[in-house]
Every structure is written in C-alpha cells, then in structure tokens.
Amino acid sequence: MQPPPPDTAPTPADAPAPTPDTGEPDMGEIVGSHDLLLVTLDTLRHDVAAELAAAGRIPNLARHLPGGVWEERHAPGSFTYASHQAIFAGFLPTPAGPGPHPRLFAARFAGSESTASGTFVFDRPDLMSALADVGYRTVCIGGVGFFNRRPPLGSVLPDMFQESHWEPEFGVASPTSFEAQVARAERVVAELPAEQRLFLFVNVSALHQPNWFHLPGATREAGDSRATHAAALEYVDAHIGRLFAAASSRRRCFAIVCSDHGTAYGDDGYTGHRLGHESVWTVPYAHFFLEPGATAP
Question: Residue 13 has what pLDDT?
Fold first, then answer.
C-alpha cells in the first residue's frame, strides 16, 4: 500500500501567516481566534510512527502530517510526568537538528533564546493558566496513571486545568481506551457555548504498556513488543478522525499531535522508559490546522 499523499488543500485566505523570521505559525494571532487541541500519544516511538506513516497504515493521522511525514524531535523528558510538566510550561518536543529553535508558547523568562516574534509569551507558570486568562476553557482528558487522581501525584497535572476527566475506561488496561476518550471529548465540545474558546488536551494511553491486546493473536504471556506498539497506533488512528472532527466542529482549530517520550522494547538490552536511550528520547511531532466542519472518515 502506498503512503497517502500530503495534504495539499489550499490555505484559507484568513489563515494566520507564518512569521517571516522563523516560518512558524504566529501564535499571537492564533491564540484568541482559534480553538486549540494538544494530543500526546503517550510512549509513542518515532521510528514506529514513521514506519506506519510511510506504509500507509495510519491514513487518518498521515493526511494531516506536513508532507505526509512526522517531524523527528527530542522529548523534553524521559517519562510522562517530567515531559508533561515541561510541555505544559511551553517546552514542546525540540526539533532534532541544531538550534536554537523558536517555541510556539513560552513563559516570560529573561535570557530565553527560543522565544521569537511568533511565540505566545505569557506571565503565568503554565500554559493553561495563561490561556484561561485570555478566555479559554481548559479541559484535560487523561489517560495514563499520572492523570487518574487516585494518589495525590495523580492530581498534579490535571489540577492545572479548569476541567479534567478520567475514568478507568480511559486507562492503560482498557482495550477500548481511546474510543472512550474520544466519546468524552465529543461530549465536552458539544456542551460548550458556541462563543467559548477551547483548549482541549488528550493524553492517549493506548500506546503505553500493556498494549499486547491490540494485535490479533498476541497473548498476555508473550507480552508487549514493537509489533503490538504499532498495532496500538493503528487502533488510535482508526478513531482519531472523530477527535479531529469534534475539535474543529465550532471553528478553525490549531492542533499539536506528538509523543511525550518513547519506550524501549529490548533495544540494546533496554526495556521501558525513564532512561536515556534513543528509542526513548526520539519522538514524532506535528502541528497543523483543522478546518471547521471537517467530518470524521
């Protein structure tokens, strides 16, 4: 199967122009005029994501990737808690080439070399508080345990949002976790007043271990593998069109889809994450616009 063609739809005339010095979106124009969607595909490896996009196995994601490919970036942390603390302060995964690289969002900080003319600069310790200050409703739909509010540590990240959701059906042990998360996102969007701007964050748990149940024929005894990780991404792709449709159902939406970190499946003897291996630090990233009225495939 051939990979899907890149998204060649014409850019609307009212789309914010890239900033001339960086070529990146001008977040000063986007914030306040667009809804915002941030999706972290928790634990997704860059190599697996790139292979599936090239093979045409994730068509619903690939149709939105610039040029049909994921950008290779470096994670800001080696596990969920550390990485999301950084992401929520504006430190998204960093492009893999030499920098400095301008950031989309940044807390005001003297001496910052990654704050540029198109950066949305804020005077709060986290992005969600800054967006709430300019009229956004900030909503978290959690996935992995750091969002489940069961121990006190599980409340630190969701407490940064005005509204947060987590159910056992959203967690790592659920074979239908992403479908349940998408259904909740659809309900959140449907209940918002039309004029209310939205920042929607979804932490997708399906890629995280255990993921063996996403590959037909795999068993609990054999456990997770690179192949079951890939099958989990195909499962997410089958349902992500509904999330994109919901996020853009009221107005144009600026979306960021990335991994927070990767994970090792025996690479050089390593297994898991929270360790300094290429399979953990190298992650896929993309940002793009979702046009209003898009329908799920």
Answer: 42
